[in-house]
Amino acid sequence: MYPFWEVPLVTSGMIIAFIASFHILPSHLATGAFWFNAYIEREAVKKDRPELYDFLSRFTLLILIFCFVIGSITGVGIWFSATVASPRGISGLIHNYVWGWATEWVFFFLEIATIYVYYYTLGRIDKESHLKLGVAYALAAWISMVIITGILGFMLTSGKWIETGGFFDGFFNQTYWPQLFVRTSMMLGIAGIYATIVASRMKNKAVGQEIVRKASLWGIAGMVFGAIFTLWYLFKLPESVKDMAFHGGLPYLKTLLCVAAIAYFIVLLYFIIFGLIRPQMAGTVTGIIILLVLFIGIGAGEGFREGARRPYIISQYMYGNQIIARDVPALGVKSEVAKYQEKGITKSLYWAKHLDLDRAEDRIKAGRMLALFLCGNCHSFEVNGIIRPLPSLLSRVGVEEAEDIAGFMDALGDYPYMPEFPGNDLDKELIGEYLATLPKGGE
Ligand code: HEC
């Protein structure tokens, strides 16, 4: 066991979720923008329209600063927060996909190198070669998405990997293609919004409006295809996930999906109204408002995607509390649930070795550690907690006394969204004694 990162009120998972949702704005801009850039540059070269270069230089500068400063910081932020929030989850991913990441980083490095060369050679080298640089960047960036989608998708639906342990069985899992297509469409939509903002600020208004229109067409195509591929993604989800999201289980997943759909629709309307019908009305303020709407939509959509993997952090393999859920003979991995149910988790872990379990305070200490490790990734412990506060949930199901809570641990595995309790009777007693000390959350 690694140390536990306790984040009051919201849980550590929400910190990752917030950084990751924000990362989507720069990362999808970085991957999508240059397809549009290359399209505009091709017009400039083929039709000899030097006035378009003003847009290329402004748009590239925005990408350079926004994606390669904020995008990089939030990207590293995801690694940092995920590593401390879920060290065993990250370790599980690294053990399987370290070469996937290594390959992604090659393309990421290519992205960084080409965008700098592209920006600083704009107007300085021959036009055809410069266009090729833009296409090289667009391809490198998109390939990095092709790779990372496999690893991210693996966490949510691990496919045949659970039987074979094969790299590509997990990578090309059942939702890989829909997710890649959704992201590819979305990157064009997101790039479209930024492009309308940049184009609306150009000095040459006529050219600016022409580009706003073109970017909006790209954006509309991205949003429409994104919606179609999202339906394909939902259709491909495992039955158990569909049950949890659409037939009871976790009804708020459906709400998240609705919020994402509404945000999506508003962005589509933006492209139609401010892009196609009245491009002269597109501007920085409306653009930024739409980015905020999109941010809410992305947060909700990601909330659904991530929620759908419950109770796992790596689908079918590792529970949200970082306990390995089952045997994977192909990898020589054994279920820790079975192990701890037999031997007891408190007795197996080093941090409890110095505790004297005949003393009441030591029992509470052990119980608190157990509660943090086994519930703390998903639940906050404060009575006014924002993310699934345990005090009010325990009161809601009517278990408030130590023995009742201990007894309730047997029922955890009956919930489709919670891991079964990985411990023996002593562990149940200890966690019950600690959780009974939390303030009561009933009305
Ligand atoms: C993988 C994440 C996860 C873990 C780990 C987890 N839970 Fe939950 N738990 C949930 C979710 C999701 C809900 C649904 C709550 C909601 O409505 O948002 C829930 C609901 C509950 C409820 C309310 C059940 C009901 O019928 O309304 C209780 C009580 C609860 N959890 C206790 C615990 C305890 C105690 C632990 C640790 C031993 C734990 N949970 C571990 C995700 C988890």
Structure, described:
This protein is mainly alpha-helical. It has 2 domains: 11-319; 335-435, no CATH class. Helices cover 70% and strands 1% of the residues. It is built from 17 helices and 2 strands. Strands 1-2 form a two-stranded antiparallel ribbon. A hairpin with a 3-residue loop joins β1 and β2. α1 (11-46) runs antiparallel to α4 and α1 crosses α11. The radius of gyration is 25 Å and the shape is elongated. The structure holds heme C (HEC).
Keywords:
single chain, 17 helices, 443 residues, binds heme C, mainly alpha, two-stranded antiparallel sheet
What Rg is obtained from the alpha carbons, in whole angstroms? Answer: 25 Å
Tell me the series of helices and strands, N- to C-terminal. Answer: HHHHHHHHHHHEEHHHHHH
Structural class: mainly alpha
Q: What characterizes the major β-sheet?
A: 2 strands, antiparallel
Number of strands: 2
Beta strand %: under 5%
Give the domain tally.
Answer: 2
Average pLDDT, all residues: 94
The tally of helices reads 17
* Overall outline: elongated
Concise summary:
With 443 residues, this protein is mostly helical. It has 17 helices and two strands. It is 70% helix and 1% strand.
Question: Strands, helices and their partners?
Answer:
Blueprint: H1 11-46, H2 53-85, H3 87-121, H4 127-156, H5 161-164, H6 167-171, H7 176-200, H8 205-236, H9 239-246, H10 252-277, H11 284-307, E1 312-314, E2 318-319, H12 336-343, H13 345-348, H14 360-375, H15 390-396, H16 402-408, H17 425-435
Antiparallel strand pairs: 1-2
Helix pairs in contact: 1-2, 1-4, 1-7, 1-11, 2-3, 2-7, 3-4, 4-7, 7-8, 7-11, 8-10, 10-11, 14-17, 16-17
The chain binds heme C.
